[in-house]
Specification:
By secondary structure, the protein is of the alpha/beta class. The strands form two sheets. The protein has an eight-stranded mixed sheet. It has ten helices and 14 strands.
Length: about 280
């Protein structure tokens, strides 16, 4: 990439849920158009999501992004090419599982390139919402933890290969989010999850030292972009590291957890062409 190309081309990182796609997992037509125009103008667009690749809908991937940062910054791909991948240590998985059992936390999952490994409690949650988790395009990627064959003398942590975890408690947990954040700090960095409406303590368990922010820096370095030429767009606490790492940060109008306070730009709500308006303000499309 020449210096003149670097000046004109931006590297844009876009969260999915609440930013690119709405609560029904639908990408507004205005966002699709804006993304296509930005790419036609020479900018590179990366999805930057907490989800693992197997959990991203085909209709989103088919929009033709230049790359995907997944599992909250632990993995990055350009097509089938793996740029980097970080895995949760076996000891960290086993420590979290023991903690969940001790505090009666029944709904949790582990995510990675191999798919989603879910507890019985999380399976019940999906079924209660009418989600056909075991059918359709994602069926082969869902695994029930109770059905994982852990060899004698081994542990679950040594058996599965994942890059992040997430959990939510019942409505009256015996530990707060701050408690859990502190208790699991030796193994994980915890950020708020997306289950606030049903759980006072819910979070994402990220590998210590690895997040969407480290991914922004690493992808930019690998592709030859200066941080000043990176842009991040998000809507919640799990985008904080990405937003703070990028040269320019954009909060959606529907943003939560107070992230608007430190972002450079606040665009409109996702239901009011938020992404398209951000791209227009930034001169991308």
């Amino acid at each position: 990439m020449t210096e003149s190309d670097m000046t004109s081309s931006k590297l844009v990182f876009i969260d999915i849920d609440g930013t690119l796609a709405d609560e029904n997992h639908i990408v507004p037509e205005s966002a699709k158009t804006a993304c296509a125009r930005a790419q036609a103008n020479g900018h590179k667009l990366f999805i930057c999501t907490g989800r693992s690749v197997p959990k991203i809908e085909r209709n989103i991937l088919d929009l033709g992004f230049d790359g995907v940062v997944s599992v909250a910054g632990a993995q990055a791909n350009i097509g089938d090419k793996l740029l980097f991948q970080h895995l949760v240590s076996p000891e960290a998985i086993d420590a979290a599982m023991a903690y969940f059992a001790e505090h009666h936390i029944e709904s949790y999952q582990w995510q990675g390139a191999d798919g989603m490994y879910i507890s019985e409690g999380y399976r019940r949650h999906l079924e209660s919402k009418g989600k056909t988790w075991n059918r359709g395009e994602f069926a082969r990627f869902w695994h029930l933890l109770d059905e994982i064959d852990v060899p004698a003398g081994s542990t679950l942590g040594h058996t599965i290969h994942v890059s992040k975890g997430s959990y939510f408690t019942g409505p009256e947990p015996d530990v707060s989010f701050e408690n859990t954040q502190h208790d699991l700090a030796p193994w994980f960095e915890l950020v708020h999850g997306s289950y606030d409406k049903i759980s006072p303590n819910n979070g994402e368990l990220l590998i210590n030292g690895i997040d969407k922010g480290t991914a922004v820096r690493d992808v930019a370095s690998l592709l030859g972009y200066a941080i000043a030429d990176t842009i991040a767009i998000g809507d919640s606490d799990n985008d904080t590291a990405m937003l703070k790492a990028a040269g320019t940060s954009v909060a959606m109008g529907n943003a939560i957890h107070g992230i608007q306070a430190f972002c450079d730009i606040i665009t409109t709500d996702i239901r009011d062409n938020g992404l398209a308006n951000a791209f227009k303000t930034l001169g991308l499309a």
